[in-house]
Predict the structure.
Amino acid sequence: MTETETSPAPLSIFRIAFGLMMFASIVRFWSKGWIEELYIKPTFFFSFYGFAFVKPLGVWTYGLFAVCGLSALLVAVGLFYRVAAIGLFLSFTYIELMDKSTYLNHYYFTSLVCLLLIFIPAHVYFSVDAYRRPALFADRIPAVYPNALKLLIAILYVYAGLAKINSDWLLHALPLRIWLPARNDTPIIGFLFNYPWVAYVFSWFGCIYDLSIPFLLWNRRTRPWAYAAVVVFHGLTALLFPIGMFPYIMIVTALLFFDWTGVQRSKQPEKAPQPPKGGAPQFQLAPPLGSWGAFSKRLTRIAFTLFFLLQLILPFRYWLYPGELFWTEEGYRFSWRVMLMEKAGYAQFTVKDDTGKRVVVNNTEFLTPLQEKMMSTQPDMLLQYAHHLCDQFAERGFRQPQVYVDSYVALNGRMGKPLVDPKTDLAKERDSLAPKTWITPFDDEIYGF
Amino acid sequence: MLKKITITLASVALLWACSTGTTDESQPTPQPGNAGSTDRKAMLTNLADNIILPSYASFKTTFDAMLTKADAFAAKPSQASLTEFRQAWTTAYTEWQKVELFDVGPAENHTLRYFFNIYPANTVGIEENIVTGLSASLEVPSSYPRQGFPALDYLINGLGSTDEAILAKYTTAPDAAKRVAYLKRITSQMNTQFTTVYSEWTGGYRDTFVNCTGLDAGCSTSKLVNGFVLHYERYIRSGKIGIPSGAMTNGVVAPEKVESFYKKDISLTLAKTAHQAVVDFFNGKSLKTGQEGPSLKTYLNGLGAKDSRTGTSLTDIINAQMAVSAAQLNAIKGNLHDEVKTNNAAVVGVYTEMQKAVRMLKVDMTTAMSITITYTDNDGD
């Protein structure tokens, strides 16, 4: 394979914007008191399958966020870049793994970007590192690096678009038909949201947008218009839905698609560090990763390939499970399924034992409102919580507690119904990746992806 | 191409906005009643002006009357003043059932319910407070069951088996003066708390309430609905029925936990009044005219919330379930304290029906309205 080269400027701009945005996110999270709220106050945490060892660290959780924020800043300015990128990836991913009730697709996306950044020399240009060590400086880098990030973005959009090709989204304009009227007091355009056809327009436009935007951004001719669409689309979603930093992350990330050749030319004389003295070549290629040369390069290439293969396959793992994906959520996470469901639920647990003890659990005793809300609609979390209750009530003198749940879940405007078989003793069910037989059938069909 | 689409969409939107104007008449179906409307401001206005404020005013009348009778009794404890105080207490307690559900705005901020109706009364604590006098705090959580209507219930109905015995506690008993003082202290505490809430409502909060039309967690509709559902679930279903009947605790019947434990003949009246208040509020029934106006019902109808299988509207389903709960509740006669012991299955039956209504309110209604109970980000997945 021949090595295509490209300007490092877009990557540097991305590195700075991404680092600053991460830093801002951490500051925002901290200042809203969410560290305390989400990771210190709760007495129980929903860990991810296989990551039970990742737990909040008590007050040291603040330290974890501090490390994350500091790493983000260092990445932004390009100081101790590799170490900072590793620190950013590890600390951020650790934070996200602590409790699944805060899972968001854009956090997952952020983690993946941080992972890639470890292997991408985004610090060879316009960075403190390159200024301090002129040998590091390069104004050409292998195109594979920015392309890897672009590919990840493209996967995100295309899979998000594919996931919208389903009957609820396209044929019934759900859940937008539920969400938009909630915003009918938006100035000027608000009244439009009372009309179902508007929800249809938004649904179809959203689907087509997701499926086409990566290609339109990739193509030089359509790029400016595509970027304008990115700004308008994500700006609108930021206005309409409480989705935090996500729209801004996408607006910034899409900057990667510009090649900024003009910008680089004009900036290079003053801002970019000068190549070493003594007639060094005008154009330099980034040094290979570490000092292992070709071997390391090949290894990186294999790792990238595996990474992207996994990214392409993972969202389709739901095919391995029976039942409706939106209902069972088996294989739902890590698949770029965003804004697809209005799902609400109610779960009342009963714990009893053979000696005749029986209690109806007050969920607020064990969970935060957010945890309760998330738990009540997601079967794996229902099970985790049931096991927690089993342990708790065993400590309170129940002998081999049995845990039953009276659940009621409504999905995309359908009337609610039990999500879990009320006769199943969840204390006896093991958590695994195998299909959960105790989930009641959905009894309806959502066609499509 | 994309630009064209964007421009076209924008112009359509603009044209529409210009052609229809920005007045409320642009709503597709502004008619109240069973028709629907998604105009939240109209809903909040009707709820505030025709239900919440008149209910508070009506409660204030009976509550003030009770305070007068309480003062008269405190000034001169006698059979006559005790009887009048009790009657006024019963009337005010019943009216209270029609305002406790407004757990939004001032009532929520000042946790009005905690100072008015946390039961069963902690009689040991009340006696302690009587002895301690003014230094006993009435602001901490442990003090809630030592004040409000349940404490008054104990103090005027529960101190002895005869009226003579009760009167003696206020006249000849060694701590009579202290008891009178505590009685006055808790009625004045109730008065202070209620006056704070009511004067905020009449002094500006009403406008804040109707103008905060957003659906985010901090705004009226969301808080109102959250408070409304919580009230039905925790304070009607659990408090009045589920806990005393043992439906929530392994069938261990707890008659001592009924509301108005010492004046047993009114506990069912209180429960029925509270249930009816919830139904009327849901349907937007005006206290002034008895007519229904913009409400949670019309809002849900405006949203087109329905059972997608049968096509039945969600509001019909909810009202039908409410009617079943009410019918079961109304079928119980006598007093709740005895009924949970002798007619337990019927009371548990009420709980079961209320539980179905809770699910509809808590899940089907809130999901149709897109109201969340969380306060962090959420990308809907």
